[in-house]
Write a structure and sequence with these properties.
Beta-lactam-related; seven-stranded antiparallel β-sheet; Beta-lactam/transpept-like
Length: about 400
């Protein structure tokens, strides 16, 4: 499946004036819409913008700094995708073979086809096996309860009936798109194929080579001292700062969430992909693999629009109303340009606490913006994200 053709334009190498970008972000903090922001952008070779605004915790003295540590939740999925594709390059994983060849737990899964008059789930065997390509493109059949009422209903039924399997699919692999726990399963495939835990694999094959020293599943005391607090949006629109989460060393590492990072670290990963898999003299993927990540893997299936089942955790999600959205191997792809911002064929995703990234290959630009707010897709956080993007593109100097 081919990606949308890109009309290459001159890359971002400098900005005309960053004052408008600073002003746009500072205004969001001054108005109380968001407590604190770190935003950065880069071309293929160098950082072209960085800014930190507001506080790490509302009504507390610590100011945001560029090296502030954030919980980036689902933005770990990009790292997991890179890890899996490294193993594909080595022949230790296959994109289109049944994933159950590596993890037998993915064999013989059942598909939920509905509920009877008494609310009892009706299941049948899946018509085809799950592949790594399905998992990376969220066409596996796995769906999160946060955005799928049928999963909520099924899990409720399974809690009262031990005979029901705990792991079921919402549709046959390859037949639909749904955002779910696919990358958690990819993380497990990486562990099995590599023979090491996911945190160690990341460290040895992605984080250390790219000097991403502030990214990981655990924090040092020095890193914890730089961590931003989560803020919860109240019914009146105000924000309530939360205590820092209790930090324990995990025994199980998720390919789908639970990691920490900083804007500079994550921007390094984005620049590496913008450069075709290499940065700073280090290579983590081949250029053709990076191109495959950016190619539409789901054909004409719609992607990226999600209806919440729990508004306290997430709003409904539709980042680009009216824009056709697809999925590659690790990112969402906009097939149409976004007014005032990214071009067609750009790549993006996000984390639950309102952290966001994008890569615009046609413009030679990558950007990241980090906040710590619930619910996900918070309207004011999204407005801040859009203000950053628009100001950045407005300030561009193509050379």
């Amino acid at each position: 499946m081919a990606n949308v053709p890109l009309a290459r334009s001159a890359p971002f190498r400098a900005l005309r004036d960053i004052r408008d970008i600073d002003a746009a972000l500072q205004a969001r903090v001054n108005s109380g819409e968001v407590p604190g922001i770190v935003a950065m952008a880069a071309g293929a070779q160098a950082t072209i913008y960085e800014g930190a605004f507001g506080l790490r915790a509302q009504d507390a003295p610590a100011k945001m700094s560029v090296d502030t540590v954030f919980r980036i939740a689902s933005m770990v999925k990009l790292l997991t995708s890179v890890a899996a594709l490294q193993l594909v390059e080595q022949g230790r994983l296959k994109l289109d073979e049944p994933a159950s060849h590596i993890d037998p737990k993915l064999a013989s899964l059942q598909v939920l086809i509905g509920f009877d008059a008494k609310g009892i789930p009706q299941l049948r065997p899946a018509r085809r096996p799950i592949t790594l390509r399905n998992l990376l493109s969220h066409t596996s059949g796995f769906s999160y309860p946060l955005w799928d009422a049928d999963v909520v209903h099924y899990l409720r039924a399974a809690r009262s009936d031990p005979a029901l399997p705990r792991n079921v699919l919402m549709f046959d692999p390859g037949s639909r798109w749904a955002y779910g726990a696919s990358l958690d399963h990819v993380g497990r495939l990486v562990e099995i194929a590599s023979g090491v835990t996911l945190d160690r694999y990341f460290r040895d094959h992605i984080l250390r080579p790219l000097s991403m020293n502030d990214t990981g599943f655990t924090l040092s005391e020095q890193q914890r001292a730089r961590e931003a607090h989560l803020h919860v949006r109240q019914s009146d629109g105000s924000l309530a700062a939360q205590p820092l989460e209790r930090h324990t060393v995990p025994r199980i590492f998720s390919g789908g969430g639970g990691i920490y990072s900083t804007a500079p670290d994550y921007l390094t990963l984005l620049q590496t992909l913008l450069n075709g898999g290499s940065f700073g003299g280090k290579s983590i993927l081949r250029p053709q693999t990076v191109a495959l990540m950016a190619a539409n893997q789901i054909g004409d299936l719609d992607a990226g629009v999600m209806k919440t089942t729990n508004p306290a955790i997430s709003n409904d999600v539709d980042f680009f109303p009216g824009v056709r959205l697809r999925w590659g191997l690790g990112h969402m792809i906009n097939l149409d340009p976004v007014d005032g911002g990214r071009k067609a064929g750009s790549l993006t995703w996000a984390g639950l606490y309102n952290t966001y990234y994008w890569i615009d290959p046609a413009s030679g630009l990558a950007g990241v913006i980090m906040m710590q707010i619930l619910p996900f897709a918070d309207a004011r956080a999204l407005a801040t994200y859009r203000a950053f993007e628009r100001a950045l593109y407005h300030a561009r100097v193509a050379t």
